[in-house]
Design brief:
The protein has 123 residues and is mainly alpha-helical. Helix content is 62%, strand content 0%. The chain binds zinc ion.
Length: 123
């Protein structure tokens, strides 16, 4: 048991913050790009009588639109996760498993900066 009573986290706070900010910036770029894609698909559907559901092109556009929308939803979730992680960093609970309370290894945080649990507790 550590004399200070503090659990050592896998990564120091400043590197963690930098990694989270970097991941957040990348995710914001991804969201901007997917939003442009989605608008492009919607524009295409507006210009091609896609309201006729029997039009095969309309079905393709609907499919593309659903795919881009799913990617966009995933990216937004990731952004929210990263924001949560930044709040946990401010609160001093970042880098600790929410289930077992043990520090999350630095290698895991490097791959997944928004991780809330250790590998054993994940999934
Ligand atoms: Zn755990």
């Amino acid at each position: 048991m550590a004399a200070s009573g503090e659990v050592e986290v896998g990564m120091d706070a400043e590197s963690s913050r930098a990694a989270l900010r970097r991941a957040r910036a990348e995710t914001e770029l991804l969201i901007a790009s997917l939003t442009r894609d989605l608008n492009g698909v919607i524009d295409a559907s507006l210009s091609s009588n896609a309201d006729d559901e029997h039009d095969p092109e309309g079905a393709t556009i609907a499919f593309e639109r659903a795919q881009v929308a799913a990617l966009l939803a995933g990216a937004r979730r990731r952004l929210a996760d990263l924001d949560d992680a930044l709040s946990r960093l401010d609160a001093g609970t970042y880098g600790r498993c929410e289930r077992c309370g043990l520090p999350i290894p630095a290698e895991r945080l490097a791959v997944r900066p928004s991780a809330r649990t250790c590998v054993h507790c994940a999934g």
